[in-house]
Amino acid sequence: MSQPRNSYAVGTGLFIVLGFAALVYLATQTTSVANTHQGASYIVDTHFANIGQLKERAPVKIAGVRVGQVQSITLAPGAEVADVKLAIDKNYDKIPLDSVATIFTSGLLGDQYVGIVYGTSKKTVAEGGTLALTKPAEQLEDMLGKFFGAGGMADNLGGTYTVTATFSNVGTLSAGAAVKMAGVPIGSVQSVVADPVKLDAKVTLAIDNRYNQIPDDSSAAVFTSGLIGSQFVAIQPGGSPDALKNGDEMVLTQSAMQLEDLIGKFLVNGSSSTDKKDAGNGKPGDKSSDTPSPTTPAGKQ
User: Fold this and answer.
1) What is the pLDDT averaged over residues 205-233?
2) 275-279: long-range contacts at Cβ-Cβ below 8 A with a sequence spacing of 24 or more?
């Protein structure tokens, strides 16, 4: 009787050991722990508005092939973008200057890495040079927003210029939210800062350089869209012949509409409609109800 039990225990133990070994193998194949970079390399600088969960020693890949690793990730005091230095194998030192560096997620454990897509420029990135074109890590909120129709921010591939707008209430608007014009993403919210003196919020918008002809009398409003209620800034073009320039301020703004305001407007409109209906039915407010009805003389039918 004891032999079957011992066999069962040995089988169970062996299964657990094999399962643990398989998990360790998968972890080493999908993380940067087993993918340490070796050999001579050169350094390329990149800047990202959001690095997500990217870590030092994460892989750098071209066409899915590892060609280097993330050497360092720093954020200078007062800066709004992260400086990410890439150590790339010298065998791949002919990266076109207009190539795009993007933060992707891969592997069973969801590790992130930097993927480089070659451009077409004949100039290449030199030692210590910078890849100016980058795409930040896509966050779960942005992916859900796109799935539910909220839309995401425009890719920062052509450079941006910044303008500011002041709102008395920004609701739940936050950095990274989309900036749209005619429903099309043209940029993103770079920062949202409260003014302790004016008691309002200053919002900095980073707009794609392709949209550099927006009239300077255009208005900016905070709207809510999508099933999950993500907020974005919508720009309504004005009619001025002069265009917004880098550093300009948008004077015409509309703050975020709060739920309480919407309910209040609904109740007021509903009350007004009820009063008008009651007036038409001869209830208080109907002048016809104050007019005495004619009486029939006594003795006549």
Assistant:
1) 85
2) none
